[in-house]
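Office hours follow-up: a student asked to see two folded examples consecutively, so here they are.
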Amino acid sequence: MPMRTGGTDHRTDHPADDLVNVILDFAPDPELDPETAERLARRLRAEIAELDVESVRTGPAAPAPDGAKGAEVVTLGVVVVAMSASGGVFTALIETVRDWLGRSSARHRVSLTIDGDTIELERASAAERRDLIDAYVRRHTGSERG
């Protein structure tokens, strides 16, 4: 198992074909002011960067949905997290996002996408979120969480 060295550096202890890219899309509560929303997004990215991931980088912005007003901000941050396909890092990423959402009473939405499979988390109860996340983790790790 590689030593934890932070989240934004590029390590070479995993072959490239063992890496998985997770696209994380954060849309803040629409009632928040932009500065607060940006601060929350930075905090989430920092928490993810503390995990044993290969890299955390800004991803492409999602296109605005039909009917959206001009330059209206729909999502605040798309982040691409590159990590090892093994070793429990994916479960740690999911737990970090779940904990981050649980600490907030606001109506944020976070979606995670791997190979076109997306899970979207928002305003679900803690039990509903847990069940959805457990099923998603099983699909991408092939194991039960304990």
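And the second, which I mentioned at the end of office hours:
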Amino acid sequence: MVKYVGFLMVLFIATFITGCSQPNESNTEEGLPVLITLTCNPNLASEPCQDVEFDRPDEIQIMMEAIHKAERIPGIIDYGTQYKMSINNADGSVTRYDFSLGMDPKMQGLLVNEEDTHIGYSIALEDANQLRRLIQRRTD
């Protein structure tokens, strides 16, 4: 569980930094990325998974808010990855994270920036559940 929490926290911070640094053309005021892609980890067979893309500003905003509120997990983390997350900005830059939510509504999410996999971030339970619902809507 600590692994997942840390992963989500890193994703949150990295997304916040990336999202705020270069606003996209269609959402200049909000500074949102133009696309967030979640690609399932093929080595994680314990839970069902489908790739998901978020290109609507309202969905991207929800993802970014959860990421920005994530909290750093102390120490070096050991974790498994449910998704590879790519955050594409209007300037063409891409930030990549390991991202895990799981299916359990009682678990926090985990975010880890692929550039520093020893630091993880936890996504609060309420935000993790909101992200689970968002993914569910896109995969149903």
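Two things to take away from it. The chain is about 35% helix and 25% strand. The two ends are 26 Å apart (CA to CA).
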